[in-house]
Amino acid sequence: KNELNGTINYIVNELFNEGFTIEDEVSIHTTISGLIDMQTVNNQINTTIPLQVEITPGGLFKSNKFKGIISVQFATSIDIFQDQLLNKTELIDYKWISKPVVKFLGMNVPIEPIANFIIKKYKTGICESIDQSIQKNFNLNSVKIAAQKFFTKPLYSTEDSIIHVFASPLELAIGPMTMTPFDLQIPVIFYF
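The chain above was modelled as a monomer; its predicted structure follows.
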């Protein structure tokens, strides 16, 4: 639980606040601008994040910054297969809360179609950055070590402690996730 919470907090609070530089052409700087909504469906975490976005294009237009506020919806599927964490993030939808503008000759000029083009063009790179962050920050090995420690103790002992029954799981899997108002609950299934 602590591993996953730490990963989610890192991704939300650090990755989005650091922003993204994609292909050395476009810099996307983001700041969280409201409450984050998370929901789970089976092995998928659906996250809606309101972001203040500042897009700096490369080339001739790098002195112009596109600014706006956007609500972005991500879906991240998480699973374990053969002791490997498998995760895939997709940008499901986005909606402009404050439409993007660029300052030109002292005036705010709306540029929503250009900003939409940039988001669509680089959404794969953004999702790959999120997936890499999950892989980097979620330590599946520490979960395995905690499970191994649990199973080193007998599951059952006779009253005279002569007979002990141990279990040794062969494989771990993730069950359907659920949410409470305070926790993300991820059941771990052990195969013997």
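The helical segments are 2-18, 112-137, 140-151.
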